[in-house]
Write a structure and sequence with these properties.
Strand 9 (221-225), helix 10 and strand 10 form a beta-alpha-beta unit. The chain has two domains: 2-123 and 277-285, Quinolinate phosphoribosyl transferase, N-terminal domain (Aldehyde Oxidoreductase, domain 3, Alpha-Beta Complex); 124-274, Aldolase class I (TIM Barrel, Alpha-Beta Barrel). It has helices spanning 2-5, 12-24, 29-34, 56-66, 95-125, 144-153, 171-178, 184-194, 208-216, 229-239, 256-260, 271-274; strands at residues 40-47, 51-52, 71-74, 81-82, 87-94, 132-134, 167-169, 201-205, 221-225, 244-248, 266-268, 281-285. By secondary structure, the chain is of the alpha/beta class.
Length: 286
């Protein structure tokens, strides 16, 4: 089963069931009208573009949920780089079952491979520097665990999995509390007072001055939001190792290395999950 192969994908079976229900709750009337139930055959999952593969075990799970008698042979594992015409996996058994599973299996495989591939492009762009590429919570509802898994397959790291994973004081938190007369130092102190001491406190800032205030307040991590390269360099210099520094907001592939060279520790990129283009993969009978 899926969670035995990849424990981090323990939610995968539930997600697969939901996805199949979307497609098959009323049956596959085309296949049922045309393809004899006892007609057997073979199919291949074939890469049509270059990228990093992720989600092959999820795709395999889709086929087996539709028909446990299907044989699925995985030829290329997650994390591998694929080229056009590479055969990722072979499926054999009832053709009707293969066709019923086809779109859902490809949806998972294409989506997760697209995220892994996009992440890998950013990781390669900062190669040789100590910065770490991270995702955000800007994920497809219901697919967060799978999409964050794909980020790790592509060489990135996961930021918060959910709102209970860490304290991140964002601009709207600051606005709400500043309206009560609190400054950054008092806001950080309140967070530490009311939350577990095991949790790190991160503060989002928009200026160098705010970054310095957050460092002086004892924040563990300071997020530089949508800052210019010049301001990032100044913030890194001013914080001078008193906190870890994360760059976020408006990060693009052509800017990411210059951002990394400012000296920040992390770069978080929402586009890894919310804007990754699906990797072109097809299923071919025969």
């Amino acid at each position: 089963m899926l969670n035995q192969v990849h424990p981090e994908l323990s939610s995968g079976q539930k997600v697969v069931n939901h996805a199949l229900a979307e497609d098959l709750s009323w049956g596959d009337i085309t296949t049922e009208a045309l393809i004899p139930h006892n007609q057997h055959g073979r199919a291949c999952l074939v890469a049509k573009a270059s990228g990093v593969l992720a989600g092959v075990e999820v795709a395999k799970e889709v086929f087996l949920r539709v028909d446990p008698e299907l044989g699925v042979e995985v030829l290329i594992q997650d994390g591998s780089k694929v080229q056009p015409e590479d055969i990722i996996a072979r499926v054999r058994g009832r053709i009707s079952s293969i066709l019923k599973a086809e779109r859902t299996a490809l949806n998972f495989l294409q989506r997760l491979s697209g995220i892994a591939s996009e992440t890998n492009r950013y990781v390669e762009a900062v190669k040789g520097l100590s910065v770490r590429i991270m995702d955000t919570r800007k994920t497809t509802p219901g697919l967060r665990l799978l999409e964050k898994y794909a980020v790790k397959v592509g060489g990135g790291e996961n930021h918060r999995m959910n709102l209970g994973n860490g304290i991140l004081i964002k601009d709207n938190h600051l606005a709400a509390l500043r309206s009560q007369g609190l400054n950054i130092k008092e806001i950080v102190a309140r967070a530490r007072q009311n939350a577990s001491p095991r949790l790190k406190v991160e503060v989002e800032v928009g200026t160098v001055q705010e970054a310095v205030e957050a460092a002086e307040a004892g924040a563990d991590i300071i997020m530089l939001d949508n800052m210019s390269l010049e301001d990032m360099r100044e913030a890194v210099k001013s914080i001078h190792g008193r906190a870890l520094i994360e760059a976020s907001g408006g990060i693009t592939l052509d800017r990411v290395r210059a951002i990394a060279e400012t000296g920040v520790d992390f770069i978080s990129i929402g586009a890894l999950t919310h804007s990754a283009r699906a990797l072109d993969i097809s299923l071919e009978l025969g």
